[in-house]
Amino acid sequence: MDENALLAAVPDRLFIGGRWVPGSAGLLTVSDPATGREIKSIANASVEDGAAALDAAVAAADAWAATAPRARGEILRRAFDLVQQRRDEFALLMTLEMGKPLAEANGEVTYGGEFLRWFGEEAVRISGRYGTNPEGTGRMIVSQHPVGPCFLITPWNFPLAMATRKIAPALAAGCTVVVKPAELTPLTTLYFAKLLEDAGLPAGVLNVITTSTSGRVSAPIIADPRLRKLSFTGSTEVGRRLLQQASENVLRTSMELGGNAPFIVFDDADLDKAVEGALLAKFRNIGEACTAANRFIVHESVADEFAARVAERVKGMRLGRGTDDGVTIGPLINQEAVDKVAALLDDAVARGASVLTGGSRVHRAGTFFEPTVVTDVRPGSDILREEIFGPVLSIVRFADEDEAVRVANDTEFGLVSYVFTRDLARGQRMIDRLQTGMMGLNVGVVSNAAAPFGGVKQSGLGREGGLEGIHEYLSTKYTLTPDPFGV
Ligand code: NAP
Q: Would you say the pTM of this structure is higher than 0.85?
């Protein structure tokens, strides 16, 4: 399918109660960040549309919870198969609305699709416990139940995977959902909702609202006592605000928030592997990933060689529209993102850092920033404290292991850490000492549908994926009965 045919095939309405309906707040437009051109206008939801979406999720909740786990799982499995069939369409759509190179968008289709397969399989493995109480007089039954209607808010950087990572476990657990994608990249979610409709998902189980006023539309949904769960992926700043709102009704929450990942290279590291890992951990998704390595903490004895080698590779990267052959670095999501990256780099340089390659905005249509390597970044620089969310690899030096750990942990975040060492004992010490929810030990990417993804400290609450992911959408019930059942 070519770009125009694909864009025409994407629904331009809200999906509420199994029907595609216009938004009552007019239209919002979606642009291609590589060209700045508008690519589609879609429905803009009002507060009333948000309420209607929650009404639909509430109305469908009991029947979906009572649907056999096998039937729920098979719908997810059909959805997985349809994602594979429509792989090229999803990849192109993400490149058009978000900017990532087509090969990476394809990688996201694989990753995002896997949540459907994984949780389709997990749907039939929701289990509990049965046992005798310590006094020997009763039987204790522990069972798991769908938590109820959920509100799922997703960011723009992984438009498919961030949606499936929430939708698949929620549906597998027997919960109905209202999904709100980011205003900048709503098309993938709308196209995915159509796919779930095609896979046979009953009306009202999934509802999608797209809006240019996320705060205004979301607040009443979160305040509604019928809502039982809020799952959010996005910035720590917005996450904090939503946690405050959620506290009013003591709402269950999952929070996948920002990161500031350290990438530690010890003097005994395999430098070839460290360089490959660094390129992946930094430049995948144009650096716009919560898991992106933000601070390269490199032993002073290998720092110059590491910096020179990554800079050499970065010089060979090709910047452009993600649909063009050979492009490895697409545009940033918008002008604000470019300005932020430029400001962080300016601050680092003003404090004494040196740019080895790149370092500038690109003056052409679209919102591009050159892939950059900056070294000798000084303590206290903003770039070490804030999420860069762009293609800038920034290096600091360390002298001993304790210093590396201290610098790595010196952040309010704790999502993921990367460590390169050939010393097994040191690897184990890093697992013990780094304040992090995930770790890549001699590897630059950790994401996997079968793994519990999530952070500690201000990187969030809860886990997505793995055996843990479905429990975010289940509540535990304990029943005591005399032996034998008191009858
Ligand atoms: P964001 O600005 O926090 O937005 C995330 C989502 O929240 C969007 O759908 C946004 O909608 C919505 N939103 C914003 N303000 C809201 C409000 N007051 N009420 C309800 N919803 C609101 O984050 P982003 O810029 O899209 O994404 C980048 C951030 O996400 C980074 O910090 C990154 O680290 C984090 N992230 C974390 C993970 C993880 O798993 N830990 C994964 C990916 C990204 P609108 O955009 O339409 O306003």
A: yes
